[in-house]
Write a structure and sequence with these properties.
Elements (H helix, E strand, L loop, with lengths): L4 H11 L3 H7 L7 E4 L6 H7 L5 E2 L6 E3 L10 H4 L3 E3 L6 H5 L7 E4 L6 H8 L5 E5 L6 H11 L4 E4 L11 E7 L13 H8 L2 H18 E11 L8 H10 L3 E4 L8 E2 L8 E3 L9 E8 L17 H7 L11 E4 L2 E4 L11 E4 L1 E7 L2 E4 L1 H6 L8 E4 L4 H7 L4 E15 L2 E15 L9
Parallel strand pairs: 5-6, 5-8, 6-7, 8-9, 19-20
Antiparallel strand pairs: 1-3, 1-4, 2-3, 7-16, 9-13, 10-13, 11-12, 12-13, 14-15, 15-17, 17-18, 20-21
């Protein structure tokens, strides 16, 4: 690995006697891991059906290392949204931001959505705004939200200053950075560092955390994180924030014993080093705003009714409150928590139920992935080893001995993959193109 001399000298100064351990760790393979989607399946149930060789990630109870030969990205369970593939150290911000089940939360730099999927699992009654300034990068977040079947996530793409002040109970700000902690896993970042090091990112980070501080409610918490080692992007940003925002204080996050303390008197911060743990480099700091804020009261919206929609919803054994259903154009959404996103580019407003087309309703992939096998009137449950599972994931028509009629929810080992439209013993594939197996 050809690292810049300037970087190596900075790391020698930072790590001192530990530099040799760090240099040796760069020659070791990076670790791969997955995180169980507990909104679909419990960790215990996943371990019972998992075909992989798994070992726990110590700082994330839903996280597990897997072996290279497992290839979880090709397994049908991946397409069923039972897990997300995530670098183990990257699981730490989503694990260490304290959440209440009904919090309103902002993931401020969300793309491609890994931390969004982690936070959403921890918010069964809350609302998560998953935002990134790049609309193109948010397409990946949108796909991950759909595959995981989340109902409580709004996907947006705006400068975070567009959101109202004093709005969020919790904020995760995984800021853009020079990426030094990921050099082992992604050596291409070394060339990026040569053109954009800490001098480029530091003003961006300070601007972002300034804006995020204003969005936080009294009593709220903000977790700032990066995947870099440079104190200029880490502790210096926190020191700047504390000097500019006296209403914020640095608090103890009860960090894992494998994490190192922050530098420059900021022991409450956490540093993750690849020579101390099985993962890449990361930094975290948890801040809290003084004061106490009441939870916002839910707004009652008018009931939405449509005959074609009602006919389809009659196939689902689940109560969708009609005052939580609304339309944007011809799209029908469901969200029991809402936010005024006027002036904010919004790519997804909760659960996309489907599309109204003249006198009929076309259900979405997102809806299929949000259901349990027991919640739809007509289902086909395939084994992960059934060759028809692979054919369905590739978008092909599949056949059965039995005849079916109308909409069918196609599942693998009890977990949805998408819809199909039955014509006798043939199921016409309705899995959306972006979710097919290539």
């Amino acid at each position: 690995m050809n690292l810049p001399e300037e970087y190596l000298n900075a790391m020698k100064q930072l790590l001192k006697n530990d530099f040799r351990k760090y240099a040796e760790s760069l020659g070791m393979p990076a670790f791969s891991s997955l995180r169980v989607n507990t909104s679909k399946i419990s960790v215990e149930d996943f371990l019972r059906i998992s075909p992989f060789h798994l070992e726990p990630v110590p700082w994330c109870k839903e996280g597990f290392y897997y072996q290279e030969e497992d290839r979880p990205s090709t397994h049908p369970y991946y397409y069923a949204g039972l897990y997300y593939l995530q670098e183990p150290s990257a699981m730490s911000p989503g694990a260490f931001l304290p959440l209440e089940p009904d919090d309103v939360v902002l993931d401020g730099c969300a793309a491609p959505g890994g931390k969004t999927t982690q936070l959403a699992c921890r918010l069964p009654n809350g609302l998560l705004i998953s935002n990134d300034i790049s609309a193109s990068r948010q397409q990946a977040t949108l796909k991950n939200v759909e595959r995981h079947g989340f109902q409580n996530v709004w996907v947006t793409s705006s400068d975070i200053s567009a959101f109202p002040q004093n709005t969020f109970d919790k904020i995760l700000l995984d800021a853009p950075c020079s990426g030094e902690g990921m050099f082992r896993k992604d050596p291409s970042l070394i060339n990026s560092w040569k053109s954009r090091n800490h001098e480029y990112y530091r003003p961006i980070q300070k601007e972002l955390i300034d804006k995020a501080a204003d969005l936080l409610k009294k009593g709220g918490m903000l977790l700032y994180s990066t995947c870099t080692f440079n104190p200029n992007e880490n502790e210096e940003v926190i020191q700047y924030t504390l000097s500019q925002h006296p209403e914020l204080s640095l608090i103890d996050m009860n960090k894992h014993p494998l994490f190192a303390d922050g530098l420059n008197g900021l022991e409450e911060c956490a540093r993750l080093y690849p020579f101390k743990l099985n993962g890449e480099g990361h930094f975290m700091a948890l801040l809290q705003k003084q004061g106490q804020s009441k939870k916002a009261e839910d707004i009652i919206y008018p009931l939405f009714e449509n005959e074609a929609l009602e006919q389809f919803l009659s196939l689902i054994n689940l109560d969708y409150s009609r005052d939580s259903i609304f339309t944007i154009g011809d799209k029908v959404y469901y969200s029991n928590r809402r936010m005024n996103t006027s002036g904010i580019m919004t790519l997804r407003s909760g659960l996309l139920l489907g599309t109204l087309k003249k006198n009929r309703f076309e259900p979405s992939q997102h809806l299929a992935m949000s259901l349990k096998i027991t919640q739809f009137s007509q289902t086909v449950n395939l084994s992960a080893k059934d060759e028809r599972t692979e054919r369905y994931l590739r978008g092909e028509t599949i056949q059965f001995e039995n005849s079916y009629h109308g909409w069918v929810l196609v599942c693998v080992d009890g977990y949805p993959l998408g819809f199909a439209k039955a014509e006798g013993n043939k199921l016409k594939n309705k899995i959306e193109a972006g979710h097919r197996k290539l």
